[in-house]
Amino acid sequence: MIPEYMAAVQLTGHGGIEKLKYREDVPVPQPGKNELLIKVTATAKNNTDRKVREGLYPTEDNSDITSFSMSKDSGLSFPRIQGADVVGRVVKCGSGVSEDRVGERGLLDFNIYSTDRDDINLTPDYFGHGKDGGFAEYMVVPADQFYTVENTELSDAELAAMGMCSYQTGLHMLNAAGVGEGENVLITGASGGVGTALIQMCHLKGATPYAVSSPGKANALFELGAENVIDRSKVNNWPEAVDEATGGKPIDAVMDLVGGNMTIPLIDAMIQDMSSRKTYPRYSIAGASGGNVTKILWTKIYLYQVQIFGVSHGTRAEAKQLINWIRKGELKPVLHGTFRLSDIHKAEDYFVNRSNNFVGKIVIVPDSEWEDHGKKYAVSGE
Q1: Are the beta carbons of 88 and 105 closer than 8 angstroms?
Q2: C or N terminus of the chain, fewer CB within 10 Å?
Q3: Is pLDDT above 70 for 67?
Q4: Residues 171-225: pLDDT tens digits?
């Protein structure tokens, strides 16, 4: 029996965690043509949730509080239910969808695509931003973007931790830079969702990942497959630190999730000995947690032929590739822990003030699903 109302967390405006309102009287949405209604069991948190809430997609002088809008048909409005990396079960089918799909467990491709093309995504928006997401008991999703994953070895919370917001972004970073067999890749912010995904996908592409992270996380990153881990708190000279970490091997490409003051030193690490390289230095960036503005000497970029790739969301083809890897068991979930949906404020505080042992993803589980899908992985003290 599908209820008329559901519990959900609504973002009511830009600001602090007080803008996140837990309610139990939100109408359950109804699926339209080629859509599914899913009962949500687990939704992973992403850094973009916080950035959207705080309005941290600013103008160049950092004066505006805003989000982003890539086209006239996309963008944020309030109230909005956030949550992009959603796992659940189909409970109702809209017109044009076979009723045989009822009961399927699946993972959502979080993108709101503007075209049917598989190979490009020029105006990216996503569920939890342009449309309501998974911090709720129910959610409407496109039928062709809800991928069945039957792997019994993966719990719903673990599957949510492998969500597209991190894994698809990481894959698009690697693909944009053309990373391939035998190449060495440096990954910043390596302990987060995208970073841990990048480490694993480097191996699937035959590349060797080197991780940059904060103290206390090296063992977990080694277990995931990092060839070496650079403690960023101990680095005074990035080219020297990278050279030491790789044993003198050149870095073919940098996957940067930090930006800010790290950008130029990491480019310097790639170009310090061009004669030892076999390819152009490549730099993919998909985050700016270290700062939104970097002063770049363009003569350095063009003389050394540094190729720079800005990456946000991936493509339909990349989503299908990821689902294929997940179904084959070739990707590992990195689940840090779970919180109840009603404890969203605790989850936000924990996420922002996470400790040095934090690796992977936090997953939010509706209170009604807690015993089955959340309790086992509860964050200590939750």
Answers
A1: yes
A2: N
A3: no
A4: 999 999 999 999 999 999 999 999 999 999 999 999 999 999 988 899 999 999 9
What are the angstrom distances between the C-alpha of 359 and each of 35, 194, 319? 34, 11, 23
Cα(196)–Cα(188) distance, rounded to whole angstroms? Answer: 10
Q: What is the pLDDT of residues 272-306, one digit of tens each?
A: 999 999 999 999 999 887 788 889 999 999 999 99
Q: If you count them, how many residues does the chain have?
A: 382
**Domain annotation for the chain: domains and CATH numbers:** 5-162+333-377 (3.90.180.10), 167-310 (3.40.50.720)
d(CA 178, CA 280): 11
255 membership: H or E segment, kind and range: strand 253-256
Q: Are 10 and 71 in contact (CB under 8 A)?
A: no
Q: Is this prediction's pTM over 0.90? A: yes
What is the rounded CA–CA span in Å between residue 160 and residue 163? 5
Place of tokens 């309102």: 21
> What angle do the packed helices 164-176 and 193-204 form, to 10 degrees?
50
The distance from CA 341 to its chain's CA centroid, rounded to whole angstroms, is 19
What DSSP string runs through 285-299? E---TT-S-----HH
Rounded Cα gap, residues 312 and 261, in angstroms? 20
